[in-house]
Amino acid sequence: MPARSIETLRAEVGEADMALLRGDYATIARLLPAVIGELYAHVATGVEPARSEALKLLVMACGSDGTCMLRHLGETNLAYISGERGQQAADLLGDPVWRAAAAFGRAHARSSANKPKPLMVASDNRRAALRMEKARAHAMLDRDADAVRELRRAERLAPTQVHNHPLIRDLVADMLDRSGGRDLRGLAWRMSLI
Fold it and tell me: Which residue of 2, 24, 116, 147 is 20 to 30 Å from 136, comparing CA positions?
């Protein structure tokens, strides 16, 4: 099956960018595998300027969208690999601006925890990450009701992020063992834990 046009792939990377801002990781996970494979086909077989455009899109897809999605879902090893692929694409381009963009994405991949600053929180996925951290803090203080409240707020902002984050899944399972409540059971059910 031949690779789709660069214009089509650019539109899909743009759609993944918008999904990232919404915290819609399911859309990113649906789009990026095929897009990345087809971009590699353009890099291997394309001629300029299509080859360079494919490399730039790989930096965006691997070094930004893929890295951020994987990091937010707790897949830090895969996020690092995705960041490396973005850096490799930028190195092939040889453009210092694209190398810097890829290095930025790679640096974020190295971070194993999302630590947004409250005054700089902009997107729903960042606000959800902050709520999840607050929930973890409440749970450590044995304030499970407050933790559940924060998790439900995070879930309204970025359900995929909450439902698939390994630390949050463990937290909800632990709270189920020591306490109950309709809201906690509902959250656990939506996370496929019960």
Answer: 24
What does the block give as tokens for 153? Answer: 């707020």
Q: Which of 186, 178, 193 is nearest to 155 (CA)?
A: 186
CB 106 within 8 A of CB 83: yes
- Give the C-alpha distances (Å, rounded to integers) separating 57 from 8, 12, 169: 11, 10, 33
Nearest-angstrom CA–CA distance, 86 and 65:
10
Is-contact 93 67, C-beta < 8 A?
Answer: no
The single-letter code of the amino acid at 130 is L
* pLDDT score recorded for residue 120: 44
pTM of the model: 0.59
Q: Which amino acid is at 180?
A: G
Query: 182: alpha, beta or left, given left = phi > 0 and alpha = psi -120 to 50?
Result: alpha
The pLDDT tens digits for 85-129 are: 888 888 898 888 888 888 887 776 666 444 444 444 457 778 888
**Cα 62 vs. chain centroid, distance in angstroms?**
11
